[in-house]
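Reopening this one. Same input as before:
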Amino acid sequence: MARYQKPDFFMAQVANPLIGGLARLGVGLRGARLLAVRGRTSGRWRSLPVNPVTVGGQRYLVAPRGDTQWVRNLRASGEAVLRLGRTSEAVHAEELPAAERLPILRAYLARWDKETGRFFGLDRHASDADLARLAESHPVFRLWR
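Same output, byte for byte:
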């Protein structure tokens, strides 16, 4: 089922602005990027830091907080821009069905569990059964140019 974990004060007011500011300057902490996506209602560009993961040469975005606004906007538009400093890359995005998310979620937690594992309630050592139970509530998007 779709769910959403709202960021706490520190994440919303300190961490995300700091990580986003660094990405704007060209410093992607551990590979973080700025995701810019058009609002599905307003049409205005919205930006936030994200943690892409590459599996088998293919890039993905995982929504550790669940059905967030950026997820809804990306579903609606199917297009976004990934930014790091002055480099911008227009990408297309397709949401994966829950049944295909397991290897991506496993790779994501292997890379980002210290930063985002608390939103899953699991870490990199989670069983396939535990990850499969969470797959429905954590959208995953395949990215391509």
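So the earlier flakiness isn't reproducible anymore. For the record, The longest helix spans residues 102-120.
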